[in-house]
Structures are given as C-alpha cells and as structure tokens.
Amino acid sequence: MSTEWDAVTKIGKNVSGGGPRATVARSQSEVNAARRSGSLIATDKKYVTGNKTADPNGQRLTKVDRENEVAPPPKVDASVGKAMAKARGEKTPPMTQKDLATKVNEKPSVINDYESGRAVPSQQVLAKLERALGVKLRGKDIGAPLTKPGADKKATK
Hints:
By secondary structure, the chain is mainly alpha-helical. The protein has eight helices and no strands. The chain has helices at 2-6, 28-37, 56-67, 78-90, 97-104, 108-116, 123-133, 151-156. Helix 5 (97-104) crosses helix 6.
C-alpha cells in the first residue's frame, strides 16, 4: 500500500528512462557498425535538389510530377501583334497604342501585351481590335482586310 504513495512521476524534458533512444547515423561506417551490433536499422533516402550527388530517382519523380501539372494558357501568336502594329501604322494619321486602347475601351498595357505576344487571347478583345483596325486578327488569314458580313453575298450576285 505504501508503494502507491511513494511512486514519483517525472515530467519535463530531462526525464531519463524509457526505450532505446533513436540515433541518426551520418556515415556509412556508422550504419555498418550498427548492423554488426544487431541494432534496429531503418534507412530512408532523402532527395535534395541543391546537391548534385543526390539520387537521380528523386529528380526523375519530380519531373514526372511536373508533367501532370496544368499547362499554362496559350498566348497570342506573334503574327497577330505584327498585323496590329502594321494596321496601326497604315492609318492616317498613324495610331498609337494609347489611341487604339482608347478606341476599343481597353488599357494601353492590354494593347502592348497583344502586340508583344504576351497576352492570353480573348475573343471579345480581338473582335473589338479587328473592328477598330479593319484587319482580321483571328482565323487563317491574319492581317487581311476585314470585310463586312454579307459583303461577299453582294459581290457574287
């Protein structure tokens, strides 16, 4: 009965006892010594990107993971930007990017992105630019003069 009252419970980080403490073997010789002594051994491979001597399997798996990611959206073709710049220059007086942006109710940076090929194509913006510049910016014949719908029917009759 007195053993229950004499038991001491230790709390804190300096408590000794318990099971065997896990140690990390940092070299191959330490791992071999642990194997000879019969200790429990678990080996895990770590993949480090900054280390050139790392196992290439980790790099290959990372590459496979990247292949499954979503592809970035397509950008405007360079021919669209060239056609826009050419059409702006042929206007009298020549139209600046800012003038074109004001005419189609867009920011000048949007026009710059389309001309440089950095923009993600929007059909609405391309339609406004086609009407303002008078050239086709979508389809097969990019840069061709824009014809009004129904004009082809009148020409054939």
